[in-house]
Structure prediction request, 180 residues.
Amino acid sequence: MNFTLLIVPGLGDSGKEHWQNYWLNKFENSKKVIQKDWDNPILEDWLNALSSSIYSIDGPIIIVAHSLAVSLVAHWSKKNSTNKIAGALLVAPADVDSPLHTPEETRNFSPIPLSKLEYPTILVTSANDPYISVEKAVFLANQWGSTFINVGLKGHLNSESQLQYWEEGQELLNKLIIKI
Prediction:
């Protein structure tokens, strides 16, 4: 299947050492959603940027979302229905419903939509992610109809986790592609 990997970073964008940037460089079939303001996210603005990216791509799309972008994808999917989305890898969701787990500037992404997603998804978290509890991640996976994966003690699965090309994530992406 020919598809585009649509990389959707979260709050602050993906830093130079973030696995999403490694994937952008590795996979020729990848594109990145660009937000106007990475540090002061406004849900409607971010939804518009995601929509523009999705509708500018010909052919099927696999979304690769990280952190705040996972909630963004859930919001987008609640409002939109298209067969362009073949699947999504939802990595390290941020619990925007919880003031204990996420900063105030992400609160306008709350409440996290709980509608079942219309395409295959894998939700990935780590046991010590400071932005979500494992229990909440399991709950979201169940609500969305996602396969749940806990990758152990790896923090927020971001630049600080030093994952580089994140081979384990690539294996999960391949499992998702097989489901499609």
User: Anything to note?
Assistant: The CA atoms of residues 35 and 49 lie 6 Å apart. Residues 4-179 form a domain with the Rossmann fold fold (CATH 3.40.50.1820). The longest helix spans residues 43-55.
